[in-house]
Amino acid sequence: MAKKIAYCGILSSLALIIGYLERIIPFPAIAPGMKPGFANIVILIAIYTVPKKDAFIILVLKVLLTGILFSGPSGFLYSAAGALLSFAVMLAFKSSDIFGIVGISVLGGVFHNFGQIITAVLILNTPKLLYYFPVLIISGIATGIITGMIAGYTLKHLRVIHNS
Amino acid sequence: MKDIFRKSDIVLIVSLFVTAVLFNFILYGGTTDRAVIKLDGETVETLNLSKNQSIIIDRDEIYVEIVVESGKVFINESSCPDKLCVRQGKISGRNQSLVCLPNRLVVEITGMPGGGDEPVYDAIAVAVHI
Question: Which site among A48, A132, A136 would you substitute to test the B interface, given the most B Cβ atoms closer than 10 Å to its Cβ?
Answer without folding.
Answer: A132
